Amino acid sequence: MGSSSLLLFWGYCGLFFWVIFPLESMAVDVNECLDTTTCPAYATCTNTLDSYYCTCKRGFLSSNGLTQFRGPGVTCKDIDECSQSSSRCGPHSVCRNLLGRYKCSCFPGFSSPTGNDWIPGNPDDFFCTDVDECTDPGICPKHATCHNSPGSYSCVCNLGFESSSGNRNIQGPGETCEDVDECADPGICPEHATCHNSPGSYSCVCNLGFESSSGNRNIQGPGETCEDVDECLHMCPSNAMCTNTPGSYFCTCSPGFAPSNGKLSFTEQGVHCRDIDECSQGPSPCGPNSVCTNALGSYSCSCIGGFQPNPEGSLNFSCKRIPFKCKEDVIPNNEQVQLCQVGAAVEPEHGSFCTLINATFSVLDDACENRTAEVSLKNTAESLSSVLKQTSTWSNFTKEETSALATVVLESVKSSTLAAFLNPSANVSQTVRAEHLEIESKIIKEGCTEENMTFHLKAQGDEMKIACSIIEESDSTGPTGVAFVSFWGMESFLDESFFQDPQTPLANFQSKLKMKMNSRIVQGIMTGEKKDGFSYPVIYTLENIEPKQEFESPICVSWDTNLEGGRWMSSGCVVLEASKTHTVCSCNRMMNLAIIMASGELTMEFSLYLISHVGIIISLVCLVLAIATFLLCRAIRNHNTYLHLHLCICLFLAKTLFIIGVDKTDNQMGCAIIAGFLHYLFLACFFWMLVEAVMLFLMVRNLKVVNYFSSRNIKMWYLCAFGYGLPVVVVAVSASVQPQGYGMHNRCWLNIDRGFIWSFLGPVCAIIMINSILLTWTLCVLRQKLSSVNSEVSTFKDTRLLTLKAFAQLFILGCSWVLGLFQIGPMASIMAYLFTIINSLQGAFIFVIHCLLNRQVREEYRRLFTKKIKPSSETQSSGILLSSNPSTSKTG
Q1: First vs last Cα of the chain: how many Å apart?
Q2: CA angle 127, 133, 134 (to 5 degrees)
Q3: Is the pLDDT of residue 631 over 50?
Q4: Using alpha carbons only, how large is the chain's radius of gyration in Å?
C-alpha cells in the first residue's frame, strides 16, 4: 500500500470516530431548576448533569433535616436564632427574630456605633456601650449633680439643697432642687453668733464684740466658738484706760487728761484724751517764786532765777531765795586755776598766769562784795580790759593756760554784767566802752509792748538781735536784762588753733584745712537764761576782720568750756548769710561767739579720707598685678586681654596722679595741668570700655566668620587711636571753651561752680548709656544663638562670660561717678561713703573680675607659686593682631 493510500485510510478512520461518538454525547440535559416549583419556598435549586438538589437558604432549615434534598413534601422552616443563644447580640442588648434572620438593638441607656436594628451582614460589629447622660448639661435641674450609672443616671441635689419631691435621687422633668434654710435650726451656730443663709450653704458670723476661735470671720461646722474680743488692745485712744466687758468695752481718760466729748466714759471713735494744763489753773500748783511747766498728763515745778527748791520736808513744792554767787560761778575746774588760789604755793613758771587770774578775781570780789550795792559796769569793764591789755604776757602762756585764762575772763564779764542787772535802779540802756571791750546793755522792765518786737544791741561794729519771744522765755522774776559784748584783740590769742571739729578729730588731718580767725569775739548775756536753749534763734551779725574770699567758707564757732579747758566748737550755731564784710549766725542760746574762715573741705570726715587713700593704694597694687598678668600670662593673651591692659594702664596712671597731685593747689598753673591730665586719663578709661563693648558686639554678630577682625585688618593701633585720641579731643575742646575750668582753690580737679564738671560727666553718662545698650544687645544675640546650637560650645560660653564681665566692669567704673551726682540731700552721707569706697577700689574690682575669676590665670598663679613649668603644648601666642576666636582662651 502506497503512502497516499495509507494516509487516506487513516483519514477515514478518524472521520468514523468523530461522527460516531459525538453524536452520543450531544444528548440534551433538562434543567429542572427552571421550574420555580421544583424547590420549596426559601430554598435554592442547584441543577446537576442528570438531576438537581434543593438547599434551604441561610436562616432556614429543611423539614427532613437534610442539607440537600429533592422531591415533594420537604419545606424550609425559619430558624429562631435568638432562642438558640441568649447572648446572640451581646450584653445590654435585645435580639429579635426575623424571617430567615434576626436583628439586634441596645437596651435604653446604651448605644452601638452601628446603631439599633443591626442585622447580620451589615458592616462593623454590633456591641452596646453605656450612654453617659451626664454629658448633657441640662439633664439635671439647677443646683443638682448628675451621677451616671450603666444604662441610666440619677440627679442628686447639691449640699444645701433638697428636691421638691423629697427624694434623694431625682430624674425626669418637673423635679427641682430648692435651697435648704439651715438657719431654721437654732443650734446651727454657736453662742454669740448670727446665722446668715445663702444659696446652698450658710455662715455664722460672730456678733459685734466677739471673734471666732479660728480667727475666720465666717465660721461653719462643729468646734467653732465665738469668744469675747478684748477691745482694750486697740480701741481706746492714747492716754486712755480701757475696760473690757463681754461683747463691748468702755474707755476712760488717764489722770491728767480729759475726754474731748466731756463724758467720763466713752466708746465712740474720734474722741481724744486731751492733756489738762494744770499750770493754767489758779492758783498755781507750784506756789510762789516758781515756774510751772505743763507736761503730757502731768506738770513739773522749778524755781525761778535766784531761787532754789526748799529742801525742808514740806508737802507742797516751794522755793526759797539763794544768795547771789559771783566768783564761785566763774572759777573753772582747771588745775592751773586751782594752783593760783590765795595761799597756795605758785611755781615761778606760772607766776604771770596766776597774776592775771588773781587780778581778774579781784575785779569780781569788788563787783560782788556787797549784794545790795549798785555794781558799776563801767568800772568793771575797765578793770577787766586791763587784763586783756597785757598782750605780751598772754603770748608766753601755754595753750592750756591761755584757754583757762580766756574762760575766766569771759565768765567774769558775764558774771559782773549779771550783777549789774540785779539793781533795778540801773539805767534802762547803757553803753560801756573800754580799751579792749565794749558792752551795750538793756533792761526790759515791762516786757515786750508790741508783738514781734526785736531788740538790737551793737558793739564795735557787731550786732545781736533778740526777739521778744526769747525775752518771754526768760526765767527772770523781775526785769529782764540783756547785754552784748564785743572784745577787741582777744581773737589773736583764741585763734583758729583752738578750733576742734568733732567731724575732723585728728590734728594731722585738720592741718590740711586752711583756717583763720576772721572776727572779733562777742558774747551774749541775759538774765534767767534757759540752759537747754531757746525756742527761737538769737541772730548775731559779726564784722569780718578781712574781706571774705569766694573760696572761703565761714564757720560760726562758740567757746565750749567743757572741752579741754576751752575750745572753739561749731555746734549750736549755723551761718545764715555771708558777705565780704559781714557774717550772720543763728544760735539757739546766748554764747561766746566768733567766726572762723575755712578754705578747705571742712565737712569731709577723716574716715572718708582714710578709706579713700587706703582704697587707692590697694587699687594701685591690684592694677600693677593685673598689668603684669596681662603682659606675662601668654595663655590668656588675645584681643580682649589687650583691651583690659590699656584700661588698667589708664586707670593706674589716673589714680597715681590723683593721690600724688590732687591737693597740689599752691601753683595755679601746675594745678590746672594736673586737673587736665586727670580729666584725660579718666575719660580714656571710659573710652576703652566703649571700645571693649563695641568689639564684643561685633564679635557676637559675626561669630560664624573665622578671623573676622583680622580679615578686615582691624589693627590694635586703630583702637588705640580711638581710645586715646577721642579723650584728647574732648579735653582740648573743653580747655579752649573754658580754660579756667581746670583747678580749684582746694583741689586740682574740674571746677563745679559753672557746670564745667559736665565736660567729664557728659561723655561718661553717654558712654554708660551706649555700653549698656550694646552689652544688652550682645546678651540678646547670644541668647538667640545659644538656643540654636549646643550650649556647651566654648565660643558662645566665653563670649557670654566676657559680656557679663564687661557689664560688671561698666557698673564698677560708672556707678561711682553716678553716685557722685547724688551727694546732696538727706542721703548725702551714705552716698559719700558709697562713692568713696567704690571709686577708690576700682582697681581691686577689675583685678578680681579679670584675673582672680579667670580659671587659666588662677592656674598660672598656682604654677608660679608651686614652681611648676607649664607644658609648651598649652602655651600659645597671638601677637599684637586681634583674633576673633575667643574659644582659644577662657578669658574675660
Answers
A1: 125
A2: 135
A3: yes
A4: 57
Q: Give 24-76 pLDDT, tens digit per residue.
A: 445 577 888 888 888 998 899 998 888 889 999 888 888 888 888 888 889 99
Cβ atoms within 10 A of the Cβ of 498, count? Answer: 24
CA torsion, points 806, 808, 809, 813, in degrees to nearest 10? 140
Residue 281 has pLDDT above 90, yes or no: no
C-alpha cell at 69: 434534598
Q: Answer yes or no: are the C-beta atoms of 480 and 474 closer than 8 Å.
A: yes
Cα(329)–Cα(705) distance, integer angstroms: 91
Q: What pTM did the predictor assign?
A: 0.41
Q: Within 13 Å and on the Cβ side, how many CA atoms surround 387? A: 27
CB count within 10 Å of CB 40 equals: 19
Q: By the 8 A CB rule, do 615 and 821 touch?
A: no
- Is 385:435 a contact under the CB 8 Å cutoff? yes
Query: What is the distance between the alpha carbons of residues 462 and 459, in angstroms, rounded to a whole number?
Result: 5
Cell of 741: 575750668
Backbone angles phi, psi at 400, to 5 degrees: -70, -40
Please name each of the domains of the chain with its CATH number.
36-79 (2.10.25.10), 82-130 (2.10.25.10), 135-180 (2.10.25.10), 184-229 (2.10.25.10), 240-275 (2.10.25), 327-598 (2.60.220.50), 609-879 (1.20.1070.10)
DSSP per-residue codes, 622-657? HHHHHHHHHHH-GGG-SHHHHHHHHHHHHHHHHHHH
- Quick: pLDDT tens for 679-708: 999 888 888 878 877 887 777 676 544 444
Which residues on neighbouring strands pair with residue 202, listed in sequence order?
197
β-sheet bridge partners, residue 98: 101
Alpha-helical runs (H) found in 422-472 = 468-472
CB atoms within 10 A of CB 771: 24
Residue type, 571: S
pLDDT at position 729: 92
Residue pair 31/46 in contact (Cβ under 8 Å)? The answer is: no
| Res. 675: pLDDT tops 80 | yes
Nine-digit cell string for 439? 558792752
